[in-house]
Amino acid sequence: MASSPRHAVGRIAGTTILDRVCGGVFALLLACSSQALSQDIRVTLLGTGDPTPSLERFGPGTLVEAAGQTLLFDAGRGTMQRLRQVGVSTGELDGIFLTHLHSDHVVGLVDVWLTGWVVDGRTTPLRVYGPVGTSALAEHLAKAFEYDIAIRTAEAGRSAQGVAIEVTEISGGYRWHADGVEVLAFDVDHAPVAPAFGFRVDSGERSVALSGDTRYSESLIRRAKGVDLLVHEVADAPAAFKQAHPDLPRLVHHTQPADAGRVFTAVAPKLAVYSHLVLAGGMRAEDLVGETRATYDGPLLVGEDLMTLTIADEVTVGTRRSSDQE
């Protein structure tokens, strides 16, 4: 049994045992400091749009980076281009999490999968976590592109592992863990789509919740309570348009600003951000904040593509591009 520092005598290689102990304590403090820094979360809105083709707002996609983990939530139109803009290779993705299987949330998955293999040279499987039906989606994608895959594998000798898709079908309550990062999937209300998930990501004391597609959701409120950042979808149209189209699916299957404000008030995040803007009838994004203020008076932003939110002691906002895109 080693003697206590106060009883230590002598020197070992010119250093006292007490020096070693103190040095070890200092190293531990540095390690703890580094660990605290690594708990910070960086969230990049890759796409903030809806199914309507747009050059300003690509399809839904959110990148979350924490403690060395790089996670993608949904892969809508243009996700691969946005990943390239922020300098992230598909080989760096530790997991792709799908909120549901609506086409606007998965249409970019093919690009991330195949372009990541062909151009990025990915040599590891693409790991995808999603609701029941995700395995069938992956199997049919492989079947649809089997000719392309066979030709490229034979001609270029590309990795067979790199074009594989490993699917884990999940349900509400599923938890994913790696290096101190936890992802929790929870059910939300996007009927008739079921299941549909929101996600919460925790890294140490930092946290972000992503609503997925949903109406006003008590489940979301429970799971997101007290997060630093809440990224929430929104749908709206001018009053006259809503009166003329009271059953329009793109409105009634989503959360309108006043209801989103009620969610924000109950969750009380340090910052609430709108993403996946489903706008109809000429509704303008800049009008969303005013309508939300009827039920919420806290910090709120309307997200834009490539907006980056860094969660540390505070949540800071910037715009992200890799050096070769500036």
TrEMBL record:
- The answer to keyword Hydrolase applying to this record is yes
Transmembrane intervals: none
Q: Which portions of this protein are annotated as coiled-coil regions? A: none
Domain Metallo-beta-lactamase, which positions?
A: 58-256
Record flagged with keyword Hydrolase: yes
Name of this protein = MBL fold metallo-hydrolase
This protein's UniProt keywords: Hydrolase
InterPro entries membership: AtsA-like_MBL-fold (IPR044094), Metallo-B-lactamas (IPR001279), RibonucZ/Hydroxyglut_hydro (IPR036866)
The record's listing under Gene3D superfamilies reads:
Ribonuclease Z/Hydroxyacylglutathione hydrolase-like
